[in-house]
Design a protein that fits this description.
With 274 residues, this protein is mainly α. The protein has four domains: 2-112; 115-153; 171-211; 225-265, no CATH class. The chain contains eight helices and six strands; from the N terminus they run H-H-E-H-E-H-E-H-H-H-H-E-E-E. The chain has a three-stranded parallel beta sheet, sandwiched between helices. Helix 1 runs parallel beside helix 5 (103-110) and helix 2 packs parallel to helix 3 (66-74). The protein is elongated.
Length: 274
């Protein structure tokens, strides 16, 4: 036990050791070792070292017991066995995660050298710092390149160039529009000169057709027919009477003549001449 403590303190003074005082030989040894393994396994430790100093085969017999082997095998925490001297081998060594030849070796396996760890940590910090400095240097260089390119491009100058281009394009567009407008006006004047005679001729033809249609309509005018002696016969409700089949003696009729309207009563119906 002293060897484990001494080696552990030398390698890493910050390691925390938890000791479980178990009986390691005699009739009660197996049960005591099993109890110790079970208790330490529930404490959330990093490693459990099961060991004792050297002795005869009878002194080490507790570590050949089946209950001890099963307890080591069932433990969730990694187990290092360090039973006796380097030449001593027990059943517990075969079920453990790692077998150490001596308790001192078990302490070496269970702990890391803090000095080496600190040295590596310092080295990693230096590498990380150099890497960060390098990346920052690259980023700074990239920013400077972008700034130089942006200054070279001079957005105000580019805008001025674009405005000059727009002015030139506007002048060209105005010239083209004026030229096209003049051509269009010329074509329009020519078309208007050709269109006027055509419109007058078409208007005259339309006037002639209109006079002809008006003459025909005048001949079919109801007023002219009434003036010629015809009459329009209807019921007092305004329904036109076109056949004697619509009449019965005693019916009142409204007769519209050329100069007015008269009402009459049907006294006799004669359909023989129809």
């Amino acid at each position: 036990m002293r060897d484990i403590i001494r080696v552990s303190r030398l390698r890493n003074p910050y390691v925390q050791l938890i000791l479980y005082p178990a009986v390691v030989q005699g009739d009660a040894a197996a049960a005591s070792v099993v109890q110790g393994i079970s208790t330490l396994d529930t404490m959330g430790l990093d490693i459990i070292i099961v060991g004792r100093g050297g002795g005869s085969i009878e002194d080490l017999w507790a570590f050949n017991e089946e209950s001890v082997a099963r307890a080591i095998f069932a433990a969730q925490t990694p187990v290092i066995t360090a039973v006796g001297h380097e030449t001593d081998v027990t059943i517990a060594d075969f079920v453990a995660d790692v077998r150490a030849a001596t308790p001192s070796q078990a302490a070496e396996l269970a702990t890391f050298v803090y000095v080496d760890f600190h040295r590596n940590l310092v080295r990693y910090c230096d590498r990380l710092e150099r890497s960060m400095d390098h990346r920052l240097s690259l980023a700074h260089r990239s920013v400077e390149n972008c700034r130089s390119r942006l200054l070279a491009m001079r957005p105000d100058k580019r805008l001025l160039v674009q405005m000059e281009k727009i002015g030139m394009l506007r002048q060209r567009l105005e010239v083209l529009m004026l030229s096209k407008l003049e051509r269009s006006q010329g074509r329009l004047t020519t078309a208007a000169g050709r269109l006027e005679p055509l419109m007058l001729a078409r208007l005259e033809r339309c006037r002639s057709r209109l006079l002809a249609v008006a003459g025909r309509l005048e001949g079919l005018s109801p007023a002219k027919r009434l003036a010629g002696g015809f009459a329009h016969v209807s019921t007092p409700q305004g329904k036109t009477v076109t056949s004697v089949q619509q009449l019965t003696p005693g019916d009142t009729l409204r007769v519209r003549l050329n100069d007015g309207t008269a009402e009459t009563t049907v006294t006799h119906i004669d359909s023989q001449n129809l």
